[in-house]
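Input sequence (262 aa), recorded before submission:
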Amino acid sequence: MIDTLLIGGRGAIGSGLRTYLPKLDADYRITSVDLPGAEDKATDPAAQRDFVDLDITGDPQGLRKLLDGRDLVVYLARTNSLKSMNAMTDLVFESVRDICPETLIVGSSSVHAVNEAYWPFEKEPYATIATRRVEELDTWPEPLSAMMEACPNDDYGEEKAYVERWAQRFATEGHHAVSTRWGGINPRNGNASEIGYFTVWCHQEDAARLVNGCYKTHRDGNLRSGAHYFVISNNKYNIFDIETPRREVGYEPTHDSELFYE
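Predicted structure, token format:
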């Protein structure tokens, strides 16, 4: 059994993990802790539905009890304001360090952690790519490296950069953590009106493949703790480095956003 706790597992990303991780490996046993009344965005009736209603910031001891004995913790929850979000991140990482220091924690980052490199698609060649005038490009740009340190330009990106810094701190302390720079993930696995969405899009199944790869590599003793990986599907017009997680954790995305644009 792979005893897994999703902190915020009823949302778009967590619902996908609850759906697809057990399809990748039937040994996943998943508990999701969420705020009372949180909407479950899972659309597949096969998604695991072991729920605990708990405000972890209001009941940190309750969180600590839930962490005991876990093999994998995926931190997905969000709250309002940068200050309160960072305080929750402190709580989660400190609790994992105290209660289950050998556990792998997957911290939720985002492509927006590196906003300054490409967002909001105003600089070239990203402006041309975002408007799908790709035939005007002589060469495709080098993918934004997974080794790139966070360079946020707003509070949302900064909260994700803070998670990445915690993962790196865990690595220096000899603990086990990675940060997942999620792309555009939605419960329908479909298109969205956001500019350039086709290049950041990620299917929920591919997101699960990345998390599964991280856990299995950790279990084998080969995970590069402190790493941050872009979690993007195998999109035809991808601008992010998915070769690094392919090489390091065996990430093999199988979906392409062009299916929704043809």
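Checked by second reader. The domain at 2-260 is CATH 3.40.50.720 (Rossmann fold).
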